[in-house]
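Sample entry (104 residues):
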Amino acid sequence: HAQSDEEYRKIIAGADDNGDSDEDAAAKKAFLLADADRSGSISLTEYLAMSREQAAKSKAAASSSGLTRDDLSVRFLSLEQRVEENSKKLDKIFLILQDLEKRS
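Predicted structure, serialized as tokens:
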């Protein structure tokens, strides 16, 4: 079945059907921060800028908090899991878009 814009946002935000408004609000805030040109989408340039900013913040937080190598390893594994989850969400979106294209 065809997906609405709201359903896309929920898939991207990881709130498939749980209705968690805090997560929705956080996802919308993150999207608005990343969408620097307010085009309604995140370009590769905007994504890379956001990634560099997050990496700098993480590096600063790690150095100021005195995190050990083990702490960083745990955080890295957590980030890897989040990347995998986001990859699965993108796969869902891709399948939805393919379905929409077939219907056109």
